[in-house]
Amino acid sequence: MKILAFCLAMAGVFPTSATSMAAPSARDQNNASPSPGLSFEVATIKPVDPSYHFDGTRFWAHVNPGGAAYWYMSPITLVAYVYDVDSFQVVGPEWAKTEHFDIEGRFPEGADQKDDRKMLLALLKDRMKLAFHIEKRELEGYALVVGKHGEKLRPSPPDPVSPNAESPLKSGDNNAGEVSAKPKATRNPDGSSTIDMGKRGTQTVKFDQEKWVAHWERSKMTMAELAQILTPCLGSGEQKVADETGLTGMYQVAWDCPLAVRRQSSAGTDASAAPSDPQDASTLFRSLEAMGLKLEKRKTLQDVYVIDHVEKPSAN
After folding, report:
1. Which neighbouring-strand residues pair with 212?
2. Is the Cα dihedral 259, 212, 289, 152 positive or negative?
3. Which of 49, 73, 83, 241 is least buried, going by the fewest C-beta atoms within 10 A?
4. Dmax of the chain from CA atoms?
5. How far apart are the first and last CA of the chain?
6. How confident is the model at residue 218, as a pLDDT?
7. What is the percent of the chain where pLDDT is above 70?
8. Could you give the count of Cα atoms lying within 13 Å of 279 in the half-sphere of its Cβ?
9. Which long-range contacts (CB under 8 A, 24 or more apart) does 194-200 make?
10. 3-state secondary structure of 264
11. pLDDT at 239 over 50
12. Can you give the three-state secondary structure of 134-198, one letter per residue?
């Protein structure tokens, strides 16, 4: 889900400046309570009307220096966000997956916006009486491997002497995210968005709203990074991808990712959460095959966050 939010942001469905993509992981394996006093000054939780049709404009976490908003998120995805894991690693009652909420919170004076996940956890424990534990489970997944005819990857070009990301912004450009390289995002004439990340290369994403498919291109990427970002491209996004290519270099890569979110069909009724690609994830498999790569099914041992207790939130 976290990668899905990034896909939508890069495709321009919502602005990157409002999305907490660069927020640090708040994962805490011992499930400790948040630090005393580390909570929102004021917060509201409102249930989303069941008749609401997902349109991508109010979705996921948006964090700024004054506060944070978490739109169209279920208790399952909220816990996944807090601990920086994928939503399939969080299990709980059915309503905690299907019912969504809009949450808005104001930071106390002097608070660091990087602590928003800790404040959100405190809110969930207070208003939803959240309690959970972490256990190891064997889950279905995939391994990214080299195809039988060998890889067809192009090595990344050498680093530029003076990264473009350090040059002044031109008209139409904007800083994207809060990382040390200060990457620049540019909207291209064909509707795609390109981020110049300096020594980390460039990233271009074009979103097809008819097929709900994102086409990605990266000029510099490891196979481990590619495997991680493929997770939401496999149907419901509930199958983790592990890198087993044995390749350690940086490569130029391109792939198609059929996204899986609930959306409104052209007939005005809810579509399923599966990718709209009529051949399911075949667009992804074809794009990997073009690079001499493929996905093989695997079972892996993963951390699972098991919700022991959660209640529908108290009134604001």
Report:
1. none
2. negative
3. 49
4. 60
5. 27
6. 96
7. 70
8. 7
9. 195/10, 196/163, 196/164, 196/165, 197/165, 198/160, 198/163, 198/164, 198/165, 198/166, 199/159, 199/160, 199/163
10. strand
11. yes
12. EEEEEEEEEEEEECCCCCCCEECCCCCCCCHHHCCCCCCEEECCCCCCCCEEEECCCCCEEEECH
- Whether the Cβ atoms of residue 134 and residue 303 lie closer than 8 Å to each other: yes
Q: What is the DSSP letter of 18?
A: G
CB 292: neighbour CB atoms within 10 A? 15
CA–CA gap between residue 140 and residue 297 (Å, rounded): 7
Q: What is the pLDDT of residue 164?
A: 52
Kindly report the backbone phi and psi dihedral angles of residue 252, in degrees, each rounded to the nearest multiple of 5, phi listed first.
-90, 125
Signed CA dihedral, 229, 235, 238, 242: sign only:
negative
Q: What is the pTM assigned to this prediction?
A: 0.62
Are 144 and 93 within 8 A, CB to CB?
no
Task: Please say whether the beta carbons of 70 and 50 come within 8 A.
Answer: no
Tokens of 185: 């995002």
Considering the chain, what percentage of its residues have pLDDT values greater than 90? 46
Distance CA 230, CA 225 (A): 9
In contact, 68 and 116? CB cutoff 8 Å: yes
CA distance 5 to 80: 13
pLDDT tens track for 163-205: 454 555 554 444 444 344 455 788 899 989 998 888 889 999 9
Q: Are 254 and 213 in contact (CB under 8 A)?
A: no
Separation CA 243–CA 249 (nearest Å): 13
